[in-house]
Amino acid sequence: MGKFLAAVAVICGMVMMGQSLVELPCSVENSKDGIYTFTVNSTSRIGTFNMFFVQHEITRLIPWAVTAVYNYLNNEHDVSRVDNFREYDCPGLNQTSCSTSYRMTPDHQSYSGKTSFDRGHLHPSHAFTYSRNANDKTFYCFNIAPQDPSTNQGPWNVLEGKVLSYFTNRAGYVITGVGDQEAIFSPTNTGYTVPNHYWKIVCYKDAQGATQVVGWIGNNTLSQANNPSEADERKRSTYLPRSQQDIMNTMNINKIHLFQEAWVGGETYLLEDRLEDRLPTADECWMKRDMSDAVRQEWASYIG
């Protein structure tokens, strides 16, 4: 954390001195602990700002997590989705080739009744339809990983829409990532890692000004074809609100510091020119590990 926080201090100083948009380039120099860390900007009607803080794994070729700010702007739908899956141009960043589908093995196809894993977005395309430039950048491979089709197109899609709508009149950090273990149906037919789950965490201030952090886990084990009871259980588990600590408990202990780096990266790089002052601090998000029964019930009722 030392070098990272030192870099953050330098960047914050540059921002206060009135420098132009501060970005973190995707380069070998900005990689450590097996993670490439960088920002990606977008244009919008309010100007240009960093839309993503990316943490991409070097060995597994898939993202560990991508952080974004959600507010009213993400709920402005001025353009439609146009698929443009492709690799991100970054020296030394090895990625899955998401321009083509993640084909399943014959055994996987027989079990699931599908032919390919979905090219699952960590941040959904429909949360970035405020400009063509923003929507196009959601299709870079750093925002994509193999995902169970039934989950992606079913309960996870519903969850993404609910989280997006929640921030129509609020503001929050949203981090979406993948588990650090492989699913039992991994790898794909071409050898790409299929993570054991997706996860999502939001951090925001409630009506009383208290910081709240809520998360969810999307099981990424292949869903069996024609199994209604399994589908019902997948829906239940996906919609279940979790604390930040619950999400951390699914990870290897040597990855826990990446959560803090995601919060700090969001605060450092994603607020400039975003015209947003309703967000908690990175420390407040990082330190909020538990969740009250009232908040849990609020989200359980809201997701449905």
Automatic annotation (TrEMBL):
InterPro entries: DNA/RNA_non-sp_Endonuclease_sf (IPR044929), Endo_G_ENPP1-like_dom (IPR001604), ENPP1-3/EXOG-like_nuc-like (IPR020821), His-Me_finger_sf (IPR044925), Non-specific_endonuclease (IPR040255). The lineage of its organism: Eukaryota, Metazoa, Ecdysozoa, Arthropoda, Hexapoda. SMART domains: Endonuclease_NS, NUC. One of its GO terms (cellular component) is nucleus. Mg(2+) binds at residue 152. Belongs to the DNA/RNA non-specific endonuclease family. The keyword RNA-binding does not apply. This is Nuclease. Residues 74-237 form the ENPP1-3/EXOG-like endonuclease/phosphodiesterase domain. It comes from Folsomia candida (Springtail). The keyword Signal applies. Keywords: Endonuclease, Hydrolase, Metal-binding, Nuclease, Signal. The active site is at residue 121. GO terms for molecular function: metal ion binding; nucleic acid binding; RNA endonuclease activity; single-stranded DNA endodeoxyribonuclease activity. Residues 52-246 form the DNA/RNA non-specific endonuclease/pyrophosphatase/phosphodiesterase domain. Residues 1-20 form the signal peptide. Gene3D superfamilies: Extracellular Endonuclease, subunit A. One of its GO terms (biological process) is apoptotic DNA fragmentation. It holds the Pfam family Endonuclease_NS.
